[in-house]
# Entry
Amino acid sequence: MSLRDFGPNELVYLLLAARWTILLALIAFAGGGVIGLVIAGLRVAPIRILRWLAGGYIQFFMGTPILIQLFMAYYGASFLGFRPDPWVAAALTFSLNGAAFFGEIFRGAIQSISRGQWEASTALGFRFVSTLRLVIIPQAVRLMLPPTVGFMVQVVKTTSVASLIGLTELARAATQINTVTFQPVLVFGTVSLIYFALCWPLSLLSQHLERRLATGSALKVPKPLMLAA
Amino acid sequence: MQTALQFGPIFIHFDRLLLGLWQTLQLSVLSIVFGTLIGGLGAVGRSFGPRWVSWSVAAYVELIRNTPLLIQLYFVFFSLPLFGLKLSSNVAAIVALSIHLGAYVTEILRAGIEAVPKGQIEAAKALGLSRYRIIRHVVIVPAVRAVYPSLSAQFILQLMGTSIVGAIAAEELTAIANNLVMQTFRSFEVYILIAAIYFVVVQTASLVLAALGRLLFRWKV
# Structure
């Protein structure tokens, strides 16, 4: 019936494909983290139009499915005359999408720091960016940490959607192996376990950090609405 | 090289986009209803059930929340026929989406139940309420009210999550969009339009859920 059985070779193929899942998640994390910091900064900026722009950015990326965003990046490239490349489209989309969520997480943490800190900095002659960088963010980091790690779980899982624009990572490798072996329980069971092995430690770490960092402080970062998971 | 966006060739097929939107809404509403039922049972089992029920529910929640929806879709779609359950793509999608949402709803409701102050339950016991009435009126209703915002956010995520069920050949808005791309070759325009449709639907759904929340929980504590 099937072309071949699910054996050690297939397992190795899946494990190797998981590299690309990890790589894409790391790109999304790095890109999304940096852009997200800028978005968070804009969201609390003293100029209304900047807050408004950052808000629109977040609304768009949180209010449309990431698959559609991926398709837009992929086909948008060819519309602009570039050759569409799944990796470029995926790296771009996951970074920009991640930035919206990171932006909301960071903003929540930044706004949890009391206004007195801002006023004190202003009194000492700090400008907006210096206040943010030297006074507010160092205090906000411990509040950002648990939801940031928690969002990493989302990122790892969501990279599977990139398989639908033809990027060969773990989910696409799974469908390939399933097509030749037709042992779906084994194939998707194994792949689930690989994803689980990547995500569960991050979930536990996030919960641990939440308990640990919450002690001794009444502050709690409100989770962004879309991140209610 | 084309330089201008052309939406004309897509608007001819507006009826199909409407059909896709209708299918997306069906998938969302059905899976939200079933998922919430699963989540309700799960949360009660997790918080009030015997230890083996509580642990089984916890395992279910952790397993689902730490694996991608896409893999869950594939698993349901390809594995169930082996056990003699031949499901159409759309039914398989609803099954997978419901199981998926059920885990998140379980976790959200459990958090809500745990947040109910112990004193409130003790007060209810002191007043002589039965166990059933305590669980229902003193724990579950306030818990649901407390987590309603998280719950609606999860429902919105579910609505957007249905966009990937085209991967198992289920029919909905994104799958129709992919077909339109092959027919019209206006890929970028199609996805811009689809993104706009999703955006409007998501914003509308948020408003509807918020209004529903005000309606359901309008009394004061």
Summary: Chain B touches chain A through 46 residues (CB under 8 Å). Residues 156 and 206 of chain B are 7 Å apart (CA to CA). The mean pLDDT of chain B is 91. Chain B has one domain: 8-216.
